[in-house]
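Sequence design from tokenized structure. All designs in this work follow the same two-part layout: the structure record, then the generated sequence. An example of the structure record is given first.
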């Protein structure tokens, strides 16, 4: 009995202790809720994107067509020997890179045999002339004799007309032979056909040349041109103003040099492989130390094109997609506009329709721009150079 009384007493004590703990926890929770601090509510400001703009201006735009090419000589020739013979003399300028004047003797071929042939031809011509004089005298005598006989009309043979014709033909042949022999003597001296530089000259004194043997390869260092490709888009902007005022630029030894040029001719067909048209420029002399560029130099050219009226030039960064721009109106809100681009350059676009004078174009790339979206505008950017 005593043991049961103690167990009941411990059970009651445990219940009272647990009940006290629960009551203390409940009271503490009530105190925490009652005395809790309230968080301050702060209104978050609405985010507005800041954009860079460009103010468009309408006006005229002079198109500049840029291209490049290699300087070439317009006059090039390969001199060949017209007669056979041994080279007896050669000009000291007939070397690779040498400069020769127009008419300068480049080499001399032994002409002894050709002069002998000329002498023989001259002797044959003299004999033919003598024979002609004698035959004309015989013909005149025959005509007089026939007239004295009075037997009617004389035949051509009696008047020695066939003999005269034969001797005259022999004289013409002899004269032609003299001219041929004289040409051979003249051809034994090879002269420069124009003022030029020597590209190569594979001959030397003592070489025996055959007819058609290469003597030298020459090119003019002052009659120069540059053949430059243009895209079909650029080709359409060529006009009368494109003919002159062209500048060629090239670099030699780290120095940037410039030469004037003009349009010499425009090709009449399009290269089907590259879909390009070609313009050939004639290089004009410069006032600098290098009056002409060296043949083979790579040069850049800027050709004047047509002048476009009532257009706007805008930065390429203003374009969205293929033909759309974003405008910022007077209320600092976005609007969308489709445009018509008539020409594009490396940094700018030439717009004919869709942009009015004073329109502000958004240059900043926005993640999700929508019509009517409010923005903050920075200072307008300066127009980009063409």
């Amino acid at each position: 009995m005593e043991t049961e009384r103690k167990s009941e007493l411990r059970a009651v004590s445990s219940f009272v202790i647990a009940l006290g703990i629960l009551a203390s926890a409940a009271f503490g929770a009530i105190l925490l809720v009652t005395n809790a601090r309230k968080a301050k509510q702060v209104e978050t400001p609405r985010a507005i994107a800041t954009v860079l703009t460009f103010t468009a201006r309408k006006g005229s735009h002079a198109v500049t067509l840029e291209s490049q090419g290699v300087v070439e000589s317009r006059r090039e020739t390969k001199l060949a020997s017209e007669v056979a013979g041994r080279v007896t003399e050669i000009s000291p300028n007939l070397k690779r890179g040498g400069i020769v004047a127009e008419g300068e003797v480049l080499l001399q071929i032994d002409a002894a045999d050709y002069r002998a042939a000329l002498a023989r031809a001259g002797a044959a011509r003299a004999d033919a002339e003598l024979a002609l004089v004698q035959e004309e005298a015989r013909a005149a005598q025959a005509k007089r004799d026939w007239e004295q006989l009075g037997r009617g009309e004389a035949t051509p043979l009696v008047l020695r007309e066939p003999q005269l014709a034969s001797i005259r033909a022999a004289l013409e042949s002899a004269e032609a032979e003299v001219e041929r022999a004289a040409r051979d003597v003249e051809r034994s001296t090879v002269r420069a056909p124009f003022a030029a530089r020597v590209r190569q000259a594979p001959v030397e004194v003592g070489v025996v040349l055959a007819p058609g043997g290469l003597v030298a390869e020459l090119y003019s260092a002052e009659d120069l041109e540059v053949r430059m490709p243009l895209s079909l888009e650029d080709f359409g902007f060529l006009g009368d103003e494109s003919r002159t005022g062209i500048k060629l630029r090239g670099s030699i030894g780290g120095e940037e040099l410039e030469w004037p040029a003009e349009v010499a001719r425009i090709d009449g067909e399009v290269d089907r492989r590259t879909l390009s048209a070609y313009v050939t420029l004639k290089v004009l002399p410069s006032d600098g130390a290098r009056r002409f560029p060296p043949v083979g130099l790579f040069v850049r050219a800027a050709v004047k094109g047509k002048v476009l009226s009532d257009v706007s030039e805008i930065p390429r960064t203003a374009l969205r997609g293929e033909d759309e721009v974003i405008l910022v109106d007077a209320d600092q809100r976005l609007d969308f506009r489709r445009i018509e681009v008539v020409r594009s350059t490396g940094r700018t676009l030439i717009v004919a329709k869709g942009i009015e004078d004073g329109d502000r174009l958004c240059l900043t790339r926005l993640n999700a721009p929508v019509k009517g979206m409010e923005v903050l505008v920075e200072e307008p950017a300066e127009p980009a150079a063409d």
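DSSP finds four helices and 23 strands in the chain. We note this feature because it recurs in several other targets discussed in the main text.
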